[in-house]
């Protein structure tokens, strides 16, 4: 079985590992087809074990390899949008290339524009060429599933559902959602934070932070003008709420009979211990989200400049461990603020104070 | 037969639970067959899944197994859709 999962490394294979327990779909498919548990169960265990080791090997290889050479035109986006046609097969049918004019499909146009806005922030502000830093083509799939209430990053592309129209609208509508998904790609190619527990909540928070910054940059907003909401235009008419998450006031984004109440904590006092959602990665992300908001608000002006730069330095600096905890991340942001802006600067003070306010100690 | 589905994670991080009891249904045998196919391909431990992907916990007559988007089999997808739609 080992040979069947060892993929040859090609020029198109990412040089950094993808998420560790993504078993290739064709293998899952084969396993699923197998009727006899005596065959498929040991095989599945072996495959998962191999996948884990393959990832570790890929991680080691990535460290040893020189940075990938830039693709031609790495400073220009190369976007392709696919249409899943309300099925759940990825990537779907190619419907829009970089050089194409506007589509008749608004979801396609929004995905294309959102990919562009994300590419632009990373390039213009942080000097990063696409999500891998070397001009990786950007792919998105729209119209995934039937009335599908979600968007996700599958390790290679952003995938968007249309929403059910009752609770959620089309997930391509908020540009911060598009920025959020692509930032999962940036994290995958840099710190590659484990999507579990506190490192998973940091992974989620980093996607919210840069998702919000992409929106603020596109709108030209300063920290005090921004709404600091995630998914502000996503809730369907009649749903009681402003958005899915609030970085300014975690736990206050919605309170609705059907959706329930926004469960995010803003500080460590409310830290949620749960086995669900990979250890509450979408809940506890409220804590680092709020810390970022506090830093950006204390500094004022454009949040992507100093606050965003400090966070970006930590994400891409090479010292953030895959299994980093909140305190590890906080410590690195304090160091990054000091390195870039000096120990006596307002930036250093703002970062120290923000983590203290949300109850993350040991910075 | 009792089939319980819980869905966690997703971009919104909002949980959904639904249960269906097939005992008195005329199509109980079809539910049984679908549930068996879905369960046989599911994991004994929750897979890590992909960022923002839905995570599912399937419990059929007290036996629990796990799967996550986008790597569902057709049977898992069908069972999850049906129970979340028709269950309470």
Please describe what this structure looks like.
The complex is a heterodimer of chains A (363) and B (88). By secondary structure, chain A is α/β, with parallel strands linked by helices. Chain A folds into three domains: 2-64, no CATH class; 79-173, Elastase, domain 1; 197-357, Neutral Protease Domain 2 (Neutral Protease, domain 2). Chain A contains eleven helices and nine strands. In chain A, strand 8 and strand 9 form a beta hairpin. The two termini of chain B are 15 Å apart. In chain B, 30% of the residues lie in helices and 31% in strands. Chain B is built from two helices and four strands. Chain B has helices spanning 28-40, 74-86; strands at residues 2-9, 16-21, 54-60, 63-68. The longest helix of chain B is centred in the middle third of the chain and has 13 residues, at 28-40. The mean pLDDT of chain B is 94. With 88 residues, chain B is α+β, with helices and mostly antiparallel strands. Chains A and B meet through helix 2, helix 3, strand 4, helix 5 and helix 6 of A and strand 1 and helix 2 of B.
> What best-fitting shape of chain B do the alpha-carbon axes yield?
globular
Strand order of the largest sheet of chain A: 2-1-3-5-4
Shape of chain A: globular
**How many distinct folded domains of chain A?**
3
Our Rg estimate of chain A from Cα atoms comes to 20 Å
Please give the count of helices of chain A.
11
Number of strands of chain A: 9
CATH architecture of the largest domain in chain A: Orthogonal Bundle
Bin the strand percentage of chain A: 5-15%
CATH superfamily of the largest domain in chain A: Neutral Protease Domain 2
Residue runs with pLDDT of under 50 for 5 or more positions of chain A: 1-66
Classify the beta-strand content of chain B into a percent band. Answer: 25-35%
Q: Percent helix among the residues of chain B?
A: 25-40%
**Percent range of helical residues of chain A:** 40-55%
- Euclidean distance between termini CA atoms of chain A: 47 Å
Under CATH, the topology of the largest domain in chain A can be stated as Neutral Protease, domain 2
**What is the chain-wise order of helices and strands of chain B?**
EEHEEH
**Regarding quaternary structure, how should these chains be classified?**
heterodimer
Please state the average pLDDT score of chain B. 94
Mean pLDDT of chain A: 85
């Amino acid at each position: 079985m080992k040979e069947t999962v060892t993929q040859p490394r090609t020029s198109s294979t990412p040089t950094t590992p993808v998420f560790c327990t993504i078993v290739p779909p064709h293998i899952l498919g084969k396993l699923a087809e197998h009727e006899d548990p005596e065959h498929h169960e040991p095989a599945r265990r072996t495959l998962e074990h191999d996948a884990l080791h393959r990832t570790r090997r890929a991680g080691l290889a990535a460290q040893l390899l020189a940075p990938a050479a830039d693709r031609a035109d790495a400073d220009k986006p190369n976007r392709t949008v696919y249409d899943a046609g309300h099925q759940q097969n990825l990537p779907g049918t190619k419907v829009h290339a970089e050089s194409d004019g506007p589509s008749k499909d608004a979801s396609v146009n929004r995905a294309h524009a959102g990919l562009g806005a994300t590419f632009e922030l990373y390039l213009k502000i942080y000097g990063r060429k696409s999500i891998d830093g070397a001009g990786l083509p950007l792919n998105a799939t729209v119209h995934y599933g039937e009335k599908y209430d979600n968007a996700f990053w599958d390790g290679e592309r952003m995938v968007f559902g249309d929403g059910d129209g009752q609770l959620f609208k089309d997930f391509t509508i908020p540009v911060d959602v598009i920025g959020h998904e692509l930032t999962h790609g940036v994290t995958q190619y840099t710190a590659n934070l484990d999507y579990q527990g506190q490192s998973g909540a940091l992974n989620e928070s980093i996607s919210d932070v840069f998702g919000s910054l992409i929106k603020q940059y596109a709108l030209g907003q300063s920290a005090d003008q921004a709404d600091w909401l995630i998914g502000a235009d996503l809730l369907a008419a009649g749903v009681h709420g402003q958005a899915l998450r609030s970085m300014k006031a975690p736990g206050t984004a919605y309170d609705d009979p059907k959706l329930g109440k926004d469960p995010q904590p803003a500080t460590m006092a409310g830290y949620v211990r749960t086995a669900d959602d990979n250890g509450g990665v979408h809940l506890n992300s409220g804590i680092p989200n709020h810390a970022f908001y506090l830093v950006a608000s204390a500094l004022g002006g454009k949040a992507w400049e100093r606050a965003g730069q400090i966070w970006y330095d930590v994400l891409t600096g090479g010292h953030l461990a895959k299994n980093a905890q909140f305190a590890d991340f906080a410590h690195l942001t304090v160091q990054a603020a000091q390195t870039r802006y000096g120990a006596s600067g307002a930036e250093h003070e703002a970062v120290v104070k923000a983590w203290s306010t949300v109850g993350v100690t040991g910075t | 037969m009792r089939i319980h589905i819980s869905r966690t994670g997703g971009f919104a991080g909002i949980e959904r639970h639904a249960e269906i009891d097939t005992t008195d249904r005329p199509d109980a045998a079809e539910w049984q067959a679908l549930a068996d196919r879905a369960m046989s391909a599911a994991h004994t431990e929750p897979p890590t899944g992909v960022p923002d992907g839905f995570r599912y916990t399937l419990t059929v007559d007290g036996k629990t197994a796990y799967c996550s988007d986008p790597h569902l089999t057709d049977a898992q997808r069908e069972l999850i859709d049906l129970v979340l739609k028709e269950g309470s």
